[in-house]
TrEMBL record:
<dbReference type="InterPro" id="IPR001077">
    <property type="entry name" value="COMT_C"/>
</dbReference>
<feature type="domain" description="O-methyltransferase dimerisation">
    <location>
        <begin position="24"/>
        <end position="105"/>
    </location>
</feature>
<dbReference type="GO" id="GO:0046983">
    <property type="term" value="F:protein dimerization activity"/>
</dbReference>
<keyword id="KW-0489">Methyltransferase</keyword>
<dbReference type="GO" id="GO:0032259">
    <property type="term" value="P:methylation"/>
</dbReference>
<dbReference type="GO" id="GO:0008171">
    <property type="term" value="F:O-methyltransferase activity"/>
</dbReference>
<feature type="domain" description="O-methyltransferase C-terminal">
    <location>
        <begin position="136"/>
        <end position="278"/>
    </location>
</feature>
<dbReference type="Pfam" id="PF00891">
    <property type="entry name" value="Methyltransf_2"/>
</dbReference>
<keyword id="KW-0949">S-adenosyl-L-methionine</keyword>
<dbReference type="InterPro" id="IPR036388">
    <property type="entry name" value="WH-like_DNA-bd_sf"/>
</dbReference>
<feature type="active site" description="Proton acceptor">
    <location>
        <position position="272"/>
    </location>
</feature>
<dbReference type="InterPro" id="IPR036390">
    <property type="entry name" value="WH_DNA-bd_sf"/>
</dbReference>
<dbReference type="InterPro" id="IPR012967">
    <property type="entry name" value="COMT_dimerisation"/>
</dbReference>
<dbReference type="InterPro" id="IPR029063">
    <property type="entry name" value="SAM-dependent_MTases_sf"/>
</dbReference>
<protein>
    <submittedName>
        <fullName>Uncharacterized protein</fullName>
    </submittedName>
</protein>
<dbReference type="InterPro" id="IPR016461">
    <property type="entry name" value="COMT-like"/>
</dbReference>
<dbReference type="Pfam" id="PF08100">
    <property type="entry name" value="Dimerisation"/>
</dbReference>
C-alpha cells in the first residue's frame, strides 16, 4: 500500500542455500564451453570414434598421448561433458559418442563439406570470451554515434567486416567456417522435415545468403524454385561462381537498400545482427505480398 514501508526481503535458509549453489553454478558455467573446446582441441570425439565408439578415460589418455598424471583430470572433464550432454556415460565407466559429439569427429560432414568443430572453436575463442568480459565497460561507455557491439568495442573490428579480416585473418576464416558449418548442417534437416514450407513456391531470395550453400541445397531439393542469393559485395566477391548457376542467381547488395523481388524471402541466421528498428527498415525494402518463408534467429 502507498505510504507503507516496503517489507525488506530476507531469504529463508533454504532459499539462501539454493541461491548460493545457483551463484556457484552461474559463476562457473562458462567452463562448459571451455571444456568442450578443450575436448575438441585434444581430439577426444575422434579418439572415442577410433576406439570403437566408447572409451574409458585411461584408454583416452593413451590414445591422445597425454601424461599419465592427467588421468584424473581427463576423467573429470569427461564427466563434466557427459553431464552437459556432450558424451554419454556408460555404467562400465566409459564414454560414448552421442549425436552431438558425433558431429565433432574429424571427417564427419553433415549435408555438405564443412567441419562442425569450427563452431566450437570460433564461439569458444578468446575473441568471443574477451568481448563478453568487456560487457560491463561497454555498458558504462557513452558512445558518440552508432553503438558498436561489445565485440567491436573490445577488438576494434566487427565480425564479417573487412576490419576482422585485417585484424586476424585466421580468426576471420574460422568464423566464416563456423557459419558455413552451420549452413551445411542446418538446411538438410529443415529441407527433409519441413517440406510443406517450400510447397507451391516458385521464387525465393535468400537475404544474407553467404556463399549460397543454402540456396543450392534448396534448388537441389526443389529444382523448380528460382533462388536468388543476396549478400554484401565483400562476400559475393569471394564467391567464385558465375553470377547465375542453374536456378541460383548471385546478387551483390545491401538488404537495407534493395532486395531482389521473389515470392518469399529467407532470412537464416541473419536477424540477430540488428535492432527491431533496423528490422522494420528491412521490411520496407520488400515488395508487398512477399512472404517470409523462414526466419531463424
Ligand atoms: C551469419 S551469416 C548467415 C549466412 C547464411 N544465411 C547461413 O545461414 O549460414 C550472415 C550473413 O549476412 C550477411 N549480411 C550482413 N549484413 C548484410 C546486409 N546489410 N545485406 C546483405 N547481407 C548482409 C553477411 O555478409 C553474412 O554472409
Amino acid at each position: 500500500m502507498a505510504g507503507q514501508a516496503e517489507k525488506v526481503f530476507v531469504p529463508t535458509d533454504d532459499e539462501l542455500l539454493q541461491a548460493q549453489s545457483d551463484l556457484w553454478r552461474h559463476s562457473l558455467c562458462y567452463l562448459t564451453p571451455m571444456s568442450l573446446r578443450c575436448a575438441v582441441d585434444l581430439g577426444v570425439p575422434t579418439a572415442i570414434h577410433r576406439l570403437g565408439g566408447a572409451a574409458s578415460p585411461s584408454e583416452l589418455v593413451a590414445a591422445l598421448s597425454l601424461p599419465a598424471s592427467k588421468l584424473p583430470f581427463l576423467a573429470r572433464l569427461l564427466r563434466q561433458l557427459a553431464t552437459a550432454g556432450v558424451f554419454s556415460a556408460t555404467d562400465a565407466g566409459t564414454y560414448r559418442l552421442n549425436p552431438l559429439s558425433y558431429l565433432l569427429v574429424d571427417g564427419v560432414r553433415i549435408d555438405g563439406d564443412a567441419s562442425q568443430t569450427a563452431i566450437v572453436r570460433a564461439a569458444a575463442s578468446r575473441y568471443y570470451v574477451e568481448a563478453a568480459m568487456g560487457m560491463a565497460d561497454w555498458f558504462r561507455k557513452d558512445f558518440d554515434g552508432p553503438v558498436p557491439s561489445p565485440f567491436e568495442d573490445v577488438h576494434g573490428a566487427a565480425i564479417f567486416e573487412e576490419s576482422m579480416t585485417l585484424l586476424d585473418p585466421e580468426m576471420d576464416q574460422l568464423i566464416h567456417d563456423a557459419v558455413a558449418a552451420h549452413d551445411h548442417m542446418g538446411i538438410g534437416p529443415v529441407l527433409r522435415q519441413c517440406r510443406e514450407l517450400f510447397e507451391g513456391l516458385e521464387s525465393l531470395t535468400d537475404c544474407g545468403g553467404g556463399d549460397g550453400t543454402t540456396a543450392r541445397s534448396i534448388v537441389e531439393a526443389y529444382p523448380h524454385i528460382k533462388c536468388t542469393v543476396l549478400d554484401l559485395p565483400k562476400v559475393m566477391d569471394k564467391v567464385l561462381l558465375p553470377a547465375e548457376e542453374g536456378a541460383v542467381k548471385y546478387v551483390s547488395g545491401d538488404l537495407f537498400h534493395v532486395v531482389p523481388p521473389a515470392q518469399a524471402v529467407l532470412l537464416k541466421l541473419v536477424l540477430h545482427f540488428w535492432s527491431d528498428e533496423d528490422r522494420f527498415l528491412q521490411g520496407q525494402c520488400w515488395k508487398p505480398n512477399t512472404s517470409w518463408i523462414c526466419s531463424c534467429w
